[in-house]
Queue: 2 jobs
Job 1
Amino acid sequence: PPEAVEACASIGRALEALENRRGRKHRRRGPLVLDLLLLRALDKDCERGTKIQIKDPSFLRFAWRHASAAYGYVLLKACGLLPGVHIRSSIQRLDELGIRERCGDVDVFFENFRDKKTLDGTPKCYVCRDGDRVVLSIRGTADIFDALTDVLCEAVPFLNGEAHSGMLKAADRCLAATEASILEALDSAPRKCDLVITGHSMGGGCAILAAMRLDELRRRHDAKGPGSRLADRLYKGQHHIRCVAFSPPPVATVACRASRRCSLASVCRGEDVVPSLSLRSVANLLRSLDVLDASLEVGRRARLVALDTVKTDAVDEVRSKLGAQLSRLRDDFHGDDHPARLVVPGGLVRLGQEHHVFDDKPPVIRVRDASVSDHTLMSVDASIEALAEHYVVD
């Protein structure tokens, strides 16, 4: 299909730039887009995981409403998530109005949507009390400063393993900025209320790391620094931390684990590529493309790509010949549990078609299924609303 060719060409240009930076020793025999299209054909029959059932779709919907509300009035309005016309008012007042329209009658204790101080890397976020829950919602990538957080993707020490450096720094700064407001919100909430931390995309990654940081501080009674007072309050008040991340990227290694009093859940729509996107997964994708380039002549690759549309056995033959080698490369040379591999802590659930829900395997970029459109606010919102309505009990 033309859209597949265009998408693979776009990915190919980005990978060419990465290959140039890593100093490729041998000149590629064919265009990178050709190998991507062939890899797309070989990915046709790969499985996504096992079917599961969402235990609490109403809470998932609750968390999503707050995660999306963190984008502010202007972006929500542009995405069609705020119907109706609103009276003229200051933009800050409209941001609070957007939160209340998405989430109901909540008490907002903090928001920094228009705060220029966030140029230091503190993500846009807000704190509110929604019934018997206190919510910290962190915005995803929406400007150049968020993009800088995304690209600072080297791994740095965290807990017993490593984490995405840019998002870990953003999570710590978010806790420092919101700690006093969360404490104030907890004072106004019922005893033993939950602290819900949520976000979409980059905000989801930061939410996971912020929840794990608080969980770590809560277990260390002598801890100091951002979040330490809040962690002490959570420990003494026996508050649970519930984190729901939507379409987060891989942010920590498997050695980073939360305690039982910290619940981590991550959800994405369909074939969203972001939860599979890390330096390591891109490097493994490049190795797979090297195998195709070295194993097959350019003419044969071109014929295989063309034959894929008519479903011949030729592609199956190549899959049986190179499949094991490609799987080892793309699943990582050292296996899924290698300490340097970034994953989505707590696992990932993919919302499929017809309300099917899949427990996903560790991050692997599958070219055939990699989708950017599944990452948008509108797409995720449609899936969450459909899932919630499907599981409504009369």
Job 2
Amino acid sequence: VKVRMQLYGECASSALGSSSSSSSSSSNVKPPGMLRTGAMVLGKEGAFGLYKGLSASLLRQATFIGTKFGTYDVLKATMRKYNNGGDNVKEDESLPFYQFVACGIGAGAMGAVVGNPADLAMVRMQADGRLPEHLRRNYTNGLNAMFRVAKDEGVFALWRGSGPTVNRAMIVTASQMAVYDKSKNTILEVAPSLGNGLVTQTMASFAAGVVAALTSNPIDLAKSRLMSMKADEKTGKMPYAGTFDCLIKTVRSEGVGALYKGLVPTTARQVPLNVVRFVSV
């Protein structure tokens, strides 16, 4: 649902076989909300349409999320040793907020580079249903998508859209991890009786999810559009040259508010995922 909302009304519709007039008219139509978008997918593609890209999403979780969490812990441990002149320190020793942010930026960048192929496969599989039948890629699963991309477009095509993916990952991870750690430490200072238990972790996770969704949505929208774009059939030209070109064209054709298309499902996804991840880890 998030990806479909982010792609709705994009000025690249001409590259998908639409005329310029239909492209301009579509940008003037109010985009559907999360529930209506979900209902449209359900009506046209059935219940399984809501689960397109699931295999690629699981691959993305294993590669991107696993890498960033592992890297974040390593960077925090390194930062603690640096702060203490190389001496061993307690694992739960707090860091200044800016150091949490720095660790999040580094971890996010590393995770994005590793997880970009699966991320690209996920976006393409989720966006496929909005294309005319003759332009659909019809990937069968995440591995099939990555194999066909490498075969048809070259191995480096698996990292198409890696710029906004890395940018988004740095923003998300920095806000997500830093806000979580800072919120948890603040809660423990204000209400030490709660302890570092389920309630504290849930509250900190909720705050981290909301902040991550708000800060990352514009870059996430650009990522979705760059990963799903197709070259114009006549000119062979791609609709977007890069992240900022995509954002500028989106604002020009759809308004500033378009940068936050998909914010509700993004938040609805980020908050419970954050709670599960942080409480589990």
